[in-house]
Amino acid sequence: MKYIPGLILLILILLAVIAALYRHTSKILSELDKMLDSAIDNTFTERTFSEKKLSKIESKMYRYLSAGNTALRQINAEKDSIKTLIADISHQTKTPVSNILLYSQLLRESPGLDDNTIRLASQIEEQTEKLSFLTASLIKLSRLENGIINVAPKENSISKLIAGLDHSVDADAKGICLRIEPVTECIAVFDMKWTLEAVSNIVDNAIKYTPSGGSVTICSQEYEMFVCIRIADTGIGMSEEETAKIFTRFYRSSEVSDERGVGIGLYLAREIIAKEGGYIKVSSKKGEGSVFSVFLPKNKNLSKL
Q: Contact, 226 vs 303, CB < 8 A?
């Protein structure tokens, strides 16, 4: 029994030590929490200078954040330089390309030309149009990749988006039936201008790679979290290996090398839809056509992910 008071004293000392450690740990955690909050708000500064562990952590975090801010300023400066360069390229190439196109058209329409000269003038015009298309596509791609093009998703009408997909002239010229199924009115979160371009690229591809007499069908379906726009064609289709490559830059199948294009339409489409919080799926079989499914988020929070 005489050992009980000593045991109680030992327990009390241990409890006191635990309490002191808890208060010390709680203080450290509180300080770390404040440091992290100020780092998130970009207002972090060194407040204490000592040899204590917490002060060393604070000093290291300050150096880390300073280095990060310096790198961010360099990235922003590089983006500004790229933006200026792209603007210069766009401006400098537009006029000469337009002039070559104009002169080739005037030459082709000049009276008294023989058939060979007319053919050569037509080829100059055709190649100039390809150059113009390539330049515009590359500039657009560069702007998108460098964050110069801002995709601003907001609530928009799916029926209005699909109504803007007017490719009937191209389809008729190839003898293809373009069917747009009735759209149930629904709302999704997307940038109308850029999403229209993304989906138009897919429709353009479907028409381009569908032989005369085939069909392209556009429809929509509403789900709980997404609205899906499907573009189904009866074209040449793709192998499973190809479907994994079609969204990469400049990829073109050897079977469609004669068709106009540079292989960035689907890449641009995927980048635009991804920036809105959506995604694209494709299913295809060789010789049996393809189905592209574009999923657009219905919730604003999804578009920010």
A: no
Q: Which residues of 241-269 are buried (b: 16+ CB within 10 A; e: fewer)?
A: ebbeebbeeeeeeeeeeeeebbbbbbbbb
The per-residue pLDDT string of the chain (305 residues; one tens digit each, 9 = 90 and over) reads 445 565 666 666 676 767 767 676 777 677 777 767 776 777 766 665 554 666 667 677 667 767 777 777 777 777 667 666 666 776 677 778 888 888 888 888 888 888 888 888 888 888 888 788 777 777 777 766 666 667 889 999 999 999 888 777 678 888 999 999 988 789 999 999 999 989 999 998 899 889 999 999 999 999 999 999 999 999 888 888 888 888 887 776 666 555 666 677 888 899 899 989 999 999 998 888 999 999 999 987 665 55
Residue type, 148: I
Residues ≥6 apart with Cβ < 8 Å to 121: 104, 105, 107, 108, 113
Q: Which residues pair with 178 in a beta bridge?
A: 216
Rounded Cα–Cα distance for residues 72 and 43 (Å):
16
Contact 296, 229 (CB under 8 A): yes
**At residue 161, what are phi and psi to the nearest 5 degrees?**
-60, -50
Rounded CA-CA distance 68/61 in Å is 10
Beta strands 177-180; 215-222: pairing state: parallel
Please say whether the beta carbons of 97 and 131 come within 8 A.
Answer: yes
Is the overall model pTM greater than 0.70, yes or no?
A: no
List alpha helices for 153-250, DSSP H.
Answer: 158-163, 168-174, 192-208, 240-243
Three-class secondary structure assignment of 123-141: HHHHHHHHHHHHHHHHHHH
Structure tokens at 93: 């190439």
Within 13 A of 102's CA, how many CA atoms are on the CB side?
A: 6
> What's at 264, amino acid-wise?
I
